[in-house]
Specification:
Strand order of the largest sheet: 2-3-1-4-7-6-5
Structural class: alpha+beta
Number of strands: 7
Largest sheet: 7 strands, mixed
Number of domains: 1
Helix content: 25-40%
Strand content: 5-15%
Distance between the termini: 73 Å
Number of helices: 9
Shape: elongated
Radius of gyration: 23 Å
């Protein structure tokens, strides 16, 4: 089924995922582009407003306002994101762990941390930009989806993925440039991945305290929907709490029937 996906089918599947997980936000469709000619009519550009935006901020606008946004080098604010998404070579002043060192105990550890991120970079100058669109009403055929939700919502989707993949969904947390990790999962690793928003996404991208992200190639969407349906019996959302039990009350708060029956028996 995946090889027959169309923009319209992606929209249908994205809507079903949103409805089944009761997502607050619209899933974001994402594609890396090799030519500006791929940018559809109606896409908005930060540069048209005389601004440059963070990738995470653009994702927030798409998931909350429903805009389609295209960003090339004239639109990007964050050069680490522009590098990781394949638009440029990593500038020397950011290389050799110089960025990672801001996030770690010492420069050597920073170099290690940054190295894990650079392993997820797109090939330098392999792309000219990134496009983002509401996946439920996409203006282009996305390569993947970036889905924001609370832990229970993303857990519901991940449960559906585990149902057909036979393994837990891998996760990344505590690193840099979560947007780069999401693009890598979609276009290179080609497997669903959960990420916790990075510090930039929290500060500049308006990500909420309880937001978790799941990135997936669009080819996974039919199986994800099938898995979500199949696991409704064990993990529906909203989560069904176990309710078939008899509670107990402390003796200092005698509202229970046992106390009443004992009291009643004593009256006889």
């Amino acid at each position: 089924m995946a090889d027959k996906l169309t923009k319209e089918k992606v929209a249908e599947l994205a809507k079903e995922i949103k409805e089944r997980a009761h997502l607050t936000y619209t899933p974001v469709g994402i594609s890396l582009i090799k030519s500006e000619a791929e940018i559809p009519e109606g896409a908005r550009r930060p540069s048209e407003r005389g601004q440059r935006w963070m990738e995470c901020l653009a994702e927030n606008i798409v998931r909350t306002m429903g805009w389609t946004i295209a960003m090339t080098m004239s639109d990007h604010f964050c050069m680490m994101a522009a590098t990781g998404l394949g638009h440029i070579e990593l500038p020397e002043y950011l290389a050799e762990g110089k960025t990672g060192a801001h996030h770690t105990k010492n420069p050597d550890i920073g170099k290690e941390l940054q190295g894990t991120l650079e392993a997820c970079f797109q090939k330098p100058r392999s792309t000219v930009g990134v496009m983002l669109t509401p996946a439920t009403e996409p203006l282009f055929m996305p390569q993947g989806l970036v889905i924001y939700g609370n832990p229970s919502q993303i857990g519901k989707i991940a449960k559906g993925i585990a149902w057909y993949r036979g393994a837990p969904v891998p996760a990344t947390a505590g690193g840099l440039a979560a947007c780069v990790i999401a693009a890598w999962a979609i276009t290179i690793d080609k497997k669903p991945r959960v990420t916790l928003p990075c510090s930039g996404a929290k500060i500049f991208g308006h990500v909420e305290e309880n937001d978790v992200v799941l990135a997936t190639p669009v080819e996974e969407l039919p199986d994800i929907v099938e898995g979500m349906k199949a696991t409704d019996f064990i993990l529906p959302y909203p989560t069904a709490k176990f309710m078939f039990f008899e509670p107990r009350m402390p003796k200092s708060y005698p509202l229970d029937y046992k106390t009443y029956e004992a009291w009643k028996a004593g009256k006889k």
